[in-house]
Write a structure and sequence with these properties.
- The structure is a homotetramer of 207-residue chains.
- Chain A has 207 residues and is mainly alpha-helical.
- The first copy, chain A, is built from 9 helices and no strands.
- In chain A, α1 packs across α6 and α8 runs antiparallel to α9.
- Chain A is elongated, with a radius of gyration of 21 Å.
- Chains in contact: A-B, C-D.
- Chain A binds a DNA duplex (21 and 21 nucleotides) through α1 and α3.
DNA sequence: CATGAATGAGCCTTCATTCAT
DNA sequence: TATGAATGAAGGCTCATTCAT
């Protein structure tokens, strides 16, 4: 009985928190980052100002949560994509699939405005970006694995050290997503990415 | 007599404006974008607050001027660099020289923080970015010219349409500068850029 | 049956109230007055926020209770101390014992921070200080009794009217405790108090 | 001409600052310390909120200024009072004059409410009390000098070490002013102080 | 009796902008 | 042209208190 009530209350609380969070995300995707104030969030969410601070320690904490959520949404499927290939698959092929997957996730799940916000936060350097940094490391690790496999399999020429090669691939994905962000909707991320990485792969393939 | 005085005043005015502007640029390059307030600018420039609004309609106007200046500083030498090569020079070689020049300009003349500011403004989409857009077009044009020349000379394979190829090169330069911004000072822009474009060139060279 | 249950509930209620109160007292003694919020009290007591308002009409009511408690804790033993002496004991001696007892109580039972809180409230004049005022009267009465006895016994010179003399002693105890509060822990209340009152007693002893 | 204008502006600014400060002092003397908000100050002073922050870095800075002002008002005349006596004057006499002067200053210049505020701040321990601490040291120094002189002259018995004796006198002045604060206006500070110190002096005089 | 989610007035502070001189 | 005092909207955050369950 008591537990039941407690449960219901907790549920209500969770709902409010989610409402606040979703509202915030929506606003982040609609307005510029600095324009999304706590005032606006609570007004849009239809709760009192104090309520915000029950669920988020500060505005920064909300942003951290936003970033974490971004990372979580992104991070999930990539390894799965990777693991879905038979061990002897062509490294190039896997890599292009991964790129494809990333493009789909950015386009379909994250959305361009959220991505802008992430980039702005990263440039602002005001926030704790460890979550995003962690994700970057993960992405780096996946590229490194694939490239290493490709080198071992003799697909790619080993002219460059692995870590440097990997960095170039990360740079490429960064340039592509950034360009997508600021050219949206006039930039077909997936097509551009596939084409772009095809060039890079051609540039490192062992003749 | 009156004209003379007017002239002197104008000169003094220009000087004050330049002082304000240069101070602002210095601050943009030193502190985070949001930390550069009008107060700080006028204090650092040693003029009164009201004076700022004589020369700049608003803070946004200053930023617009800052962007224009960025573009101007960047834009100047590239064509010169391009024109300094004999007409029959290798397109790859010219392209790498251009990349080298761009890296030098970003590193030496513009500075990482200013670049961050430019990127943030671009993402914020609050400002009138026509100047920067114009510059982008210019950069695009130069890459296009070079790539076209390379294709004509048989250096590059014509698998991709010229404009698409050009876009890839723009994407690459964008990814490189962005990465430089957020990794600074642990990212050697020039070296990375040269290495990166070498791969791209290898990827499109006609075998 | 119903009564029994009611009784149990009441008991439980009393227990909760005491828990809240004791927690509050502990916090008042640990942190600065303004830092002790209802939130912190209920968290430290392990009860819900609403529960606080079942037992205390407001935060001010809690403070009033705190003051009353302070007075009660202080007031209890003094008369006992006084009565423990044979009727013909030296008044000076009794007075010094009383001072000693007071110092012990402040140091051991009340604590310096609580004392600070009492003083702050007294200065703030926002609260109903009747309890403390009553205690002051009580203390005043005891000093008056002792001094009167001393005068009657010829220990003290009767130059000053009794009430004025008493006031001086109250002033002295006030000065000592205040100094203890703000110098804590670099002020040995008991030693200082005994030494201080010795001077006063020397100052009023009959030639 | 220019200087003239600058001077006029500065004067105006000073006037505003004084207006703010005086208003604040008035409010400190009227309402409880925590009730005096920046909002109320600026409203009472008839200026905009932002104006407050032109002249005071923060609310704390205002309070610090308030304390400094208190100390300045207090500190000025004491040494003068001391120095006005011929070198061979009776130490007791000088001391009583000093007490008299102090009482006059507290009563006439400082005022009881300001004193309350000072005490509250001291108890709150939240503020930088170095100014007040400095003043306390000064007061301590003066008492020490006088007592030392009295001992040397054989007026006072040297039973207690000088510093301990001095401390008792500081305690006494503290007790007296505190009692004055909370009993005001039913406590004649000057009369009480003189009578009180007379007892102390009698208590330490060498018979 | 107990809970804890929700409230909202109020606090301190910042900063782009205006305007009389 | 130059000044700098003054403005006031807005922002992030706190906390005593209420109330449905």
């Amino acid at each position: 009985m008591k537990n039941e009530e407690t449960g219901r209350k907790k549920q209500k609380g969770e709902k409010t928190k989610r409402k606040l969070f979703n509202t915030a995300v929506r606003l982040f995707n609609q307005y510029d980052f600095g324009e999304v104030t706590v005032d606006r969030i609570v007004e849009a969410a239809g709760v009192a100002k104090g309520t915000f601070y029950i669920y988020f320690e500060s505005k920064d904490a909300l942003i951290a949560a936003f970033l974490l959520d971004y990372v979580n949404r992104v991070d999930t499927d990539y390894r799965a994509t990777l693991d879905s290939f038979p061990p002897d698959t062509n490294a190039s092929q896997i890599l292009l699939s991964l790129i494809s997957k990333i493009a789909d996730t950015l386009t379909g799940t994250i959305g361009c405005q959220s991505m802008r916000t992430v980039y702005k936060l990263q440039l602002a350097d005001t926030m704790d970006m460890s979550a995003v940094k962690g994700y970057d490391r993960e992405l780096y690790g996946m590229f490194a694995d694939l490239l290493e496999r490709g080198i071992e399999r003799g697909e790619f020429s080993p002219i460059l050290p692995l870590n440097e090669l990997t960095r170039h691939f990360v740079v490429a994905i960064r340039g592509l997503s950034y360009e997508w962000c600021i050219r949206y909707p006039d930039f077909d991320l997936k097509a551009q990415a596939l084409s772009h990485f095809q060039i890079l792969l051609d540039g490192i393939k062992s003749n």
